[in-house]
Amino acid sequence: MKSIHVSTTVNGDPAEFICTPDETLLDALRDRLGLTGAKEGCGTGDCGACSVTLNGRLVCSCLVLGAEAEGAEITTIEGMATGEALHPLQQHFIDGAALQCGVCTPGILVAAKSLLERNPDPSDSEIRYWLAGNLCRCTGYDKIISAVKAAAAEMRSN
């Protein structure tokens, strides 16, 4: 199988990798670029653990081919913090104990950030709807919703 050279932008930085035509974006991010924040939970797009944004659109990277990243802008969990300063969502997840095992957390954080970029003041229902594609087996979601609301309030006040 012939390999494909992909030039893209990941977390604001130019990136290049070689992948096979059938390799997922998730595998390319993890295995080719060393960005292991996105997790493979299901491999079928049902759990959201591998969520990233591709050209501003929230996607399950297990359902996107690495070759589709050519010329695209990708944002992963590794791009949320600014240096050592955590994004407000990350800090509120820690402060509110909105995570346990951590498998789902990167995908939920990427999805929540995508929501807040579109709607800086979402209701509980809107948050639940937006995060419906992200499954968590540990937390029960209430702390996640509270953390997203707290981060949204902080971001609006800054």
Put the structure in a nutshell.
The chain has 158 residues and is of the alpha+beta class.
Structural descriptors:
158 residues; alpha+beta; Ubiquitin-like (UB roll); DNA polymerase, domain 1; 2 domains; five-stranded mixed beta sheet; 5 helices; 5 strands; 34% helix; globular
Question: How would you characterize this protein structure?
Answer:
This protein is α+β, with helices and mostly antiparallel strands. It has 2 domains: 4-79, Ubiquitin-like (UB roll); 88-157, [2Fe-2S]-binding domain (DNA polymerase, domain 1, Orthogonal Bundle), CATH 1.10.150.120. 34% of the residues lie in helices and 16% in strands. The chain contains 5 helices and 5 strands. The chain has helices at residues 25-32, 88-95, 105-118, 124-130, 142-157, and strands at residues 4-10, 13-19, 51-54, 57-60, 73-75. It has a 5-stranded mixed β-sheet, sandwiched between helices. β3 and β4 form a beta hairpin. α2 (88-95) packs across α5 (142-157). The chain is globular and about 50 Å long.
SSE diagram, text form:
Blueprint: E1 4-10, E2 13-19, H1 25-32, E3 51-54, E4 57-60, E5 73-75, H2 88-95, H3 105-118, H4 124-130, H5 142-157
Parallel strand pairs: 1-5
Antiparallel strand pairs: 1-2, 3-4, 3-5
Helix pairs in contact: 2-5
